[in-house]
Amino acid sequence: MTQVIADISISLDGFVTGPDANPDSGLGDDADALHAWAFSDDPDDQRVLREGTARSGAVIMGRRLFDVGDGPNGWNDRMGYGAGEVGTPPFVVVTASPPESIRLKQLDWTFTRTISEAVSVARERAEGESAERDEDLDVVIMGGGAVIASALAEGFVDTLIVHLAPVVLGSGTPLFSGGTAVALQQRSVVPTTTATHITYSIARAADEA
User: Fold this and answer.
1) What predicted TM-score, i.e. pTM, was given to this entire model?
2) How far is CA 58 from CA 111, 123, 127, 144, in A?
């Protein structure tokens, strides 16, 4: 069964980018520490990355993250979602203003105006991929922080995975900045030298009854 999984790296003080994040500087100053685990030789880090990308039937992201990935210093054959791990899934971008041009034309892009529409489109694509490959694949929301926060607030997320990096950034883009409360049930914790990988289920009203 296709689920919606929010999956993101975060600093100890709650930021998902460093200061001055933009297409030219990527995810901002000192942001490499957030994603050091993805390039680690630690077998647990490698397993988390491999399992995460392998289950992706479709991936949702926000416009800022798209601009970073599609920017001149963004994704390439060696760096990007699923690079070196699995075939790249279709991507769904939440934006009110679709780009006039795309550098990464070889990837499958769909642009939607709302998180609700994005989840609907991504679920349909993931279910199609699941049927074609005869295995359960999920919708993965990879960021940014506002997109994940909106998806959680609107009740679209089944599982939240955070990769807690051992760094205090001081500023940047917060994952949470107030809003709807969300109850979580911790499912697993995998500590490594570069991150603590924590998986939560979203507690629904029926689960709490």
Assistant:
1) 0.89
2) 13, 7, 9, 16
209 residues of the chain, pLDDT tens digit each = 899 999 999 999 999 998 877 666 667 777 889 999 999 999 999 999 989 888 899 999 999 889 888 888 788 777 677 555 445 789 999 999 999 999 988 889 999 999 999 999 999 999 998 988 888 899 999 988 899 999 999 999 999 999 999 999 999 989 987 778 889 999 999 999 999 999 999 986 545 44
Burial class (CB in 10 A: 0-12, 13-18, 19+), 124: middle
Q: Among 3.40.640.10, 3.30.70.120, 2.40.30.10, 3.40.430.10, name the CATH number for the domain at 4-174+185-208.
A: 3.40.430.10
